[in-house]
Amino acid sequence: xxxxxxxxxxxxxxxxxxxxxxxxxxxxxxxxxxxxxxxxxxxxxxxxxxxxxxxxxxxxxxxxxxxxxxxxxxxxxxxxxxxxxxxxxxxxxxxxxxxxxxxxxxxx
Amino acid sequence: xxxxxxxxxxxxxxxxxxxxxxxxxxxxxxxxxxxxxxxxxxxxxxxxxxxxxxxxxxxxxxxxxxxxxxxxxxxxxxxxxxxxxxxxxxxxxxxxxxxxxxxxxxxxxxxxx
Lengths: 108, 113
Description:
The complex is a heterodimer of chains A (108) and B (113). With 108 residues, chain A is mainly beta. In chain A, 0% of the residues lie in helices and 49% in strands. In chain A, strands 2, 4, 5, 6, 9, 10 and 11 form a 7-stranded mixed beta sheet that branches. A 4-stranded antiparallel beta sheet of chain A has the order 1-3-8-7, with no helix packed on it.
């Protein structure tokens, strides 16, 4: 089973700043089968990034994903007020699919 | 527009079996994709339960595999989850999703006597 570890656990930033979220896998994720989700309170997760770097439909270009192998990054170039939420990474490189524990992005 | 929607009981007794259904609209399940169930205990992270492909192949989280069954009904364009031998640890919001790109709003399931 691939274990995903996200850091930091909580990130405190102000609107307009740049956010960098990390996701590290316990073993290499083949074909970059790595996704990122945003979840707001009381809502279902929303797919942001798939294939490590491809934006899902309707996702603003301030969201970008990068990385390969074991290390992946989600970058939000300029934070908007609606971006403050919890972010999860997930691999889908074979069963069992696993999620990271999440990074909470909060307003400073 | 593709939509998925969970339905089922909000309260289930310990040791009983949970049955949830996910109704799919705007897309035919038999056309492709994998269809899955994910849960989230209150205040905690996401856990993948299992998935079923349009072909009928299933994949389950090993931690739940002995208690889980996912099936598909293409005639009704829906897929279902059964989770047996429930305990309080199974209390969670249960989501259905299409290949993780389209999610339902989730349904809260509480296991309590």
